[in-house]
Amino acid sequence: MEQGYWVTLDRLQIGMYIRVGGSWLDHPFWLSSFKIREAGQIEELRRAGVAGVEWVPEKSDRPPLPSAPLPADGDGNGDGNGSGSGDKTASPQESREGPTASAPDPLELERVLAIKRERLRAIREKRDRLLREEKRYEEGLLGIRRMMRHLTTFSKETVREADALIKDIVSSVLADKDVALHLVNLQKSGESFYHALNVAVLSLMLGKECGLEMEQLRNLGHGALFHDIGKEARPEPPSPSKEEEAAPVLDCAAVRTHPWSGEQILTRTGSFSAETCRIIRQHHEASDGTGYPDGLRGDAISHLARITAIANVYDNLCNGEEPERRVSPHKACAWMFARMKESFDPQLLPLFIRCMGVYPPGTIVQLSDGLFGVVVATNANNSLRPDVLVHDPRPVEEKTGVVVLEVRPDLSIVRSLLPQELPRESYRHLQPRAWCLAETQAPNP
Q: Could you give the C-alpha distances from 1 to 73, 292, 392, in angstroms and in order?
């Protein structure tokens, strides 16, 4: 961490990078560390009653202004020749005495601090919802494990359990889209049960955006949950049809046949709709005809299968079985739009990307000031400027705080990262269970 040096406000000038001490709720700035870009920022510090700040030389374009000469009037504050002035800048551990700034405007300060308190309250509530839904997510995973064990032998209880999970996703997790996406995007395991639940959540989210009725959502949820059931237990494939012979040949026969195998498994149970079975068979079909197993095109592919295909590819990119091949949520959306657009429904893919946002919740990012953070909420007004929970590596008690990029034009996201690319301390503090967002704390928003 860069060394900071205490300076009084009369020595500040544009180009200096400073840190404002004390509680975040004691000053009107949305960022506790920033570079001074206009004289109005110095005046704001005076109005807020701030006596001095820390100057960070390594991040500054200019040094502090020289100190004003001390008076030589025999009052003991000088030696009569100006030798007491100097240009010494005290370290943070030295005295922080300084000239008293002008009194702050109490109404303006209270207005800004009220906004800050409201922002902290909203983020704290989101943290609590995330922790509750994280527990439900884990319960959903246990349910999927049970269902997968029993599906090939089939029981009506399996279908009832699947229905209950789908209703829970629709009514609870998807009630807060940001929370749902955060859970999907912060998964650490590439195991099939996580993938099944993630694809179900993403498919139902997109299905709701499409305005599907509950029965359609039920069919979609069944298909998304069990889209890879053919990988769990594969019956012998039939002789290929003419369409299958014309479809692209994949390297792995098991991969090529698992949609057909899964369709056969669900059909034999007699408890899933024909639409659900079509999702299982068609979730690897592509709008341009390059998919499998039947090489279907466009509207020949079930609408619900086209939804599932988008969710399936996105989660495979972000949370695939091979960690070294995973990409960030931001890069996954960009890749799908730039490189795979022809494979997907031309109406559904843009809708999915708008729903996710340019930086979906759960995306790990680095800001232009160097801090690492995780996106906690999208911004409907500007998808490039979401709310970001950041980690402050300074040796202070308050380790996390929220950057509201919509009101910080001097800050931006410079890149997205995978969780394993974060410094270990930042990764630990950016997990929902570690968020410290009490109103008395001083985050770095």
A: 42, 53, 10
